[in-house]
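Lab intake sheet, docking and co-folding queue.

SAMPLE TYPE: protein with bound small molecule
LIGAND NAME: pyridoxal-5'-phosphate
LIGAND FORMAT: SMILES
REQUESTED OUTPUT: full 3D complex as structure tokens
PRIORITY: normal
SUBMITTED BY: R.K., bench team

The fields below were copied directly from the construct record.
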Amino acid sequence: MNVLYKSTRSDMEPITASKAILTGLSSDGGLFVPTEVPSLPCSLKEMSEMSYQELAYQIMSQFLSDYTEEELRGCIERAYDVKFDDPAIAPLREADGVYYLELFHGATIAFKDMALSILPHLMTTAAKKNNLENEIVILTATSGDTGKAAMAGFADVPGTSIIVFYPKDGVSKVQEKQMVTQRGENTAVVAIKGNFDDAQNRVKAMFNDQELAKELADKGYQFSSANSINIGRLVPQIVYYVYAYATLLKNGKIAEGDEINITVPTGNFGNILAAYYARQMGLPVKTLVCASNENKVLYDFFASGNYNKNRPFILTSSPSMDILISSNLERLIYHLCGNDPVKNKEFMTALVSGGEYTITEEMREGLKCFVGGFATEEENFAGIKALYEKSGYVIDTHTGIANVVCRRFMDDNKDCTPMVVASTASPFKFSRAVMGAIAPDLQEEDDFKLIDELTKASGVKEPNAITDIRTAPVRHNMVVDKDDMKAAVKEILGL
Ligand SMILES: *Cc1c(COP(=O)(O)O)cnc(C)c1O
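RESULT FIELD (auto-filled):
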């Protein structure tokens, strides 16, 4: 099958996967979507016998039609190697009756590594395929994890440079330390006075700024996006849901064809959209549970069909999910409209002008495989503690949200379908909040001593990503107002 990509907002001529990956965001402001979703290429039984890398090739080759086998296998080999501290790449751990799919064994101990370790290779391969001579400038807004994972992926990759913006007071200490110590001559990190949506909106505006594009081109640069709107992020994420199923099958936990449920702690809606695509490919998934924190825009949307971002923005202990505009939801809306870019655009225009839109009853039919849930801060902490006390297993505060939501879903619906939870970050990345949950009486000012306590409590070896930042020097200290982001880009690139 030859899968091409078109925009969610206009009837453009479809383009190849490599062009879509290079472009990031369509020039009409839309996101690229596959012209059709391919079926699983081999039987579940066959897939259960494959390594992660082999399965990645089988799944990704279905979507990235214009990459040769050699090119794609090369990208996969360079991405899923010893940077991951577990040979399974995405191991599955059972704790108290739920399967936690650990997506945090890469360079920055969060799930964004799963896609961002391969994206630079997909991009530089795409540049070669398309005879591109400009240097690729990656511009990224991050609520904490994306930025570091993107920099780790792109650092010192020839022909690329990367600029990352993060909300000064919206990320954890460890996240910030990870970012400002980033190595690589082609990396830049800028803190902004504003929140994640401020950063995201301004990055989007810069992508659509024709004048800026021209200035860049004159200097031999062009923007591309490593944000979760890039299709090159989405496709690698489909792999691990299939892998989770294959692992359950291999371990005799399910029989071939049995259904599973999946819960995903959600922010920008990229990770759960990948699970949706896996289901569309034919993976036996009954329900996709979308777990939100107190910024529960998505929960309200699934309950009512009304998406409404007009509400206070709440800072929580799961900062990567503190999002009021879930960019990737646009792809689902487009599919629910029957792949109609005109209808989709009306919703997106309404979101920009009035901050909300309501989908039709007919469109809601297509949402039946989704269930929304949310957890408060208190519920999250209590859930992390209860799981630890029952099983000794320690999860982070993002996974913690999914943990509460999935268990409530299973209880309320008396649903015994095997439940897979996307475990999106190592507890070591959010050690203060996690230790606050499992050992509330512990008073420890020093972040690294706290990490030592977490090592003791969890019985898990301290990840390399943490060991690294204990001593790494700060290399980035730029702080700007949210309205000065464009000026910062020009300064960094010498425009
Ligand atoms: C990014 C992130 C999420 C949210 O994923 P989306 O694809 O944006 O929905 C959840 N948890 C962690 C730890 C993350 O870094």
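REVIEWER NOTE: The two ends are 43 Å apart (CA to CA).
SIGN-OFF: pending second check by T.M.
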